[in-house]
Amino acid sequence: MKQISRRDFTRTSVAAGASAALSRMRILGANDRINIGIIGPGDRGMQIWPIFLKQPDVAPVAVCDVYQPYLSRAAAACNTKVATHEDFRRLLDIKEIDAVVVATPDHWHALPTIMACQAGKDVYCEKPLSLTVVEGRKMVEAARKHNRVVQTGSQQRSGPHYQQAVKLIQEGGIGAVHKISAGFTRNAMPGFKHEEILSKELPKELNWDMWLGPAPYVPYDPFRCLYHFRWFWDYSGGQMTNWGAHNLDIARWALNAKSPTAVSGFGGRYEIKDGGQTPDVQEVLYNFNGCVVSWSGREVNRTRDEYLVFHGAKGTLSIMRNGFTIAPEIWRKKEQPEIEPMQMKGNGGESQVLHIRNFLDCVKSRQRPIADVEEGHLTAVMCHLGNIATRLQRSLKWNGEKEEIAGDKEAAQMLSRPYRKPWKLE
After folding, report:
1. Which residue of 116, 345, 358, 375 pairs with 323 in a disulfide if CB–CB is 3.0 to 4.6 A?
2. Residue 363: which H helix or E strand, with range?
């Protein structure tokens, strides 16, 4: 089996940007500093905030969170005095800040990103980019209007082995690809209990009204906070917008396609009875006019299905964060395959560092980053359409140019959601 080493790959054109980024990390000086702040340093935020802080050209200025323990933790990680705010608008008022990291729950991605662009700041926004299709388009428009660099936190795009795999696929290395399988499986039975998270009483350290923000008001529920916001439609979209936002992004990138023309979805929360809403079983099909992409999600059985597999006419490329493999196909009436087996190792941690470096370098160069806001939006659209189809248990026809669902008024209304006053999407 042919193996590609990390050293060999960095000599190729695909890895040129990654190598340059790593080199710049060693030569940047104090005059190149980027003043930065973070909004929402919770679970995901504190996975990436320390990486930002380790970059030699980053100067932390402020942190913001509605939960005091998270706020204090993020400020302490800076090892220097920084401003602390509960309201993200106060952070955006700080003129010295050049860029912000938005790592809030999904329903809080759009407004801070748009308002940061309006304030002349660049943005690193975690995936999925948006909660709705309309939100995502507004975020793209704000970035373009104000000439801002907006990177979506889809760090797999910065992984050298993902870049190599996409290059191979697009150059026909595994033959024509007419089927892509993506999915995520685990066993989350019997679900999650409230007492595992927080007290059932509203903690005095948490601003619940601000946490809800534009989402509909509900009384405080500890199960809706922190990581488990993902299982409620008002704040997120389940594993579809969690892991689907990663793997469907690579599938769409490899196809070099903007959007599907039709989407079918089925599933529901069948077995997990913990109060969550998003599916514990979900099957979605996307038609890309020449390629069928499937998403398979399962939370009730951990048996590993296909994570991300490209089924080519000459071979099958299976990829995860630790690398990819290519298994050749033997055509009918042939004794030998047309391509060789191949394997390349990957490093998810390296991909994350390179992704953050790509953003910081683009803040300086003003070039668009590898996971530009438009790309993040188009992938989020796939996820949102998959969830809409699943919730309605039917097929949808999608006009990618107009970003409209044709002939289905009920589905079309789900492309956006009303905001709770006083918040407005403008």
Report:
1. 345
2. helix 348-365
Q: How many domains does the chain have?
A: 2
pLDDT of residue 304: 80
Q: What is the dihedral of CA 145, 148, 154, 157, to 10 degrees?
A: 100
Give backbone dihedrals phi and psi of 321, rounded to 5 degrees, phi first.
-70, -15
Residues 10, 139: Cα–Cα separation, whole Å: 34
Listed residue (402, 366, 129) closest to 246, CA to CA? 129
Q: Are 18 and 354 in contact (CB under 8 A)?
A: yes
- Cα separation, 149 vs 371, in Å, equals 10
Residue pair 77/51 in contact (Cβ under 8 Å)? The answer is no
Tokens 């696929």 correspond to 169
Alpha helix segments (H runs only) across 256-347: none
Determine the 3-state secondary structure of 355 from DSSP: helix
Count Cβ atoms within 10 A of the Cβ of residue 115 and give its class: 0-12 exposed, 13-18 middle, 19 or more buried: middle
The one-letter amino acid at 336: Q
Residue type at 251 in one-letter notation: A
Q: Which residues pair with 82 in a beta bridge?
A: none
- Provide the 8-state DSSP code for 200: S
Q: How far apart are alpha carbons 215 and 208 in whole angstroms?
A: 11
Question: Which segments of the chain have a pLDDT < 50?
Answer: 6-7, 9-30
Neighbours of 13 (CB within 10 A): 8
Please tell me the distance from the alpha carbon of residue 140 to that of residue 224, in angstroms, as a whole number. 28
String of DSSP letters for 357-390: HHHHHHHHH-PPPTTBHHHHHHHHHHHHHHHHHH
In a domain, 72, yes or no: yes
For residues 252 and 392, membership in a common domain is answered with yes
Q: Measure the CA dihedral 396/379/386/291, to 10°.
A: 70
Residues 170 and 213 in one domain: yes
